[in-house]
Amino acid sequence: MSLLSLRGLTKSYDGVRAVDDVSLDVGRGEVRALIGPNGAGKTTLVGLAIGRIAADAGRVVLDGQDITALPAHRRARLGMAYTFQITSIYARLPVFENVALAARPHMMAGEVPDAVAQALEQVGLERHRGALAGDLSYGHQRLVEIAMGLASAPRLLILDEPTQGLSEPEIAAFKDLVRSLSGRCAILLIEHNMDVVMALADRVSVLAAGALLFEGTPDAVRADPGVQAAYLGAP
Ligand code: ATP
Asked: In what residue span(s) does the ABC transporter domain sit (predicted)?
């Protein structure tokens, strides 16, 4: 059984189908990439999965449980974490406190310090735990976001364009981080950087114009003429 199973999800805005009958499975421990051109519907699909956007049709099933009717915070408690946008970091609070804020809704108060320490260790930010989040480099701030997602010990971590704006060394470190996480939780990676996708994904789902265009291994996706035409450009 898949960890996350999206079935026939559909969402229209003003009569235009942003997501059109999309089904997608993420297996336990899998790194699944979701790619597609701008406006393909990736953010909308993830919004439907995590409950930030209400679906017009379709179902969301997590570990066999139909969660379609649950609000976002209930889905989060069941183990779906979504990387916060950079704006959700409190610049004037220490790194540790930012991650603690993300952890608190998920556990007893006494468990928070250990969970935060572990999440900071996983992303390699222990040394910066006392620093104000706003004083960190952009790359480190992105890692704080990931630590915030990890602090709840999710079963599924959804990373929305995590390498955007990162330098090459930071991207290399991000790849190592994801490799170290795989096995602990499944990862759904929305990513424009094809090098990152090819390096990390077990399977890739390609969205185009709201519909699933192709699904397969990174090599199969790279070799598919339809994907090349729609997304990757001419070889
Ligand atoms: P990007 O890679 O640029 O982030 P995306 O693949 O995430 O794109 P979405 O942001 O999901 O794509 O958008 C899919 C389509 O739905 C687009 O045509 C977009 O204009 C439209 N759309 C998304 N959100 C809304 C909204 N709140 N109101 C109206 N239209 C929307």
From this structure: 4-234
Predicted complex ipTM: 0.92
Strand 4-13 versus strand 57-62 pairing type:
antiparallel
DSSP letter (8 states) at residue 85: P
Mutate to test the pocket of ligand 1, among 43, 163, 189 (most ligand atoms within 8 A of CB): 43
Q: What is the dihedral of CA 22, 196, 153, 100, to 10 degrees?
A: -110
Using one digit for the tens of pLDDT, what is the confidence trace for 110-123?
999 999 999 999 99
What totals of helices (H) and strands (E) does the chain contain, helices first? Answer: 9, 10
Q: Residue 48 Cα, ligand 1 centroid: separation in angstroms?
A: 12
Burial class of 34 by CB neighbour count within 10 A (0 to 12, 13 to 18, 19+): buried
How does residue 235 score in pLDDT terms, banded at 50, 70 and 90? very low
* Burial class, 56, CB count within 10 angstroms (exposed 0-12 / middle 13-18 / buried 19+): middle
Task: Please tell me the residue having the least CA distance from ligand 1 atom 26.
Answer: 13
Tokens representing residue 75 in the block: 């889905």
Tell which one of 19, 42, 163 to mutate to probe ligand 1, the residue whose CB is within 8 A of the most ligand atoms.
42
Cα-Cα-Cα-Cα dihedral sign, residues 152, 182, 166, 140: positive
User: Which H or E run contains 80?
Assistant: strand 80-82
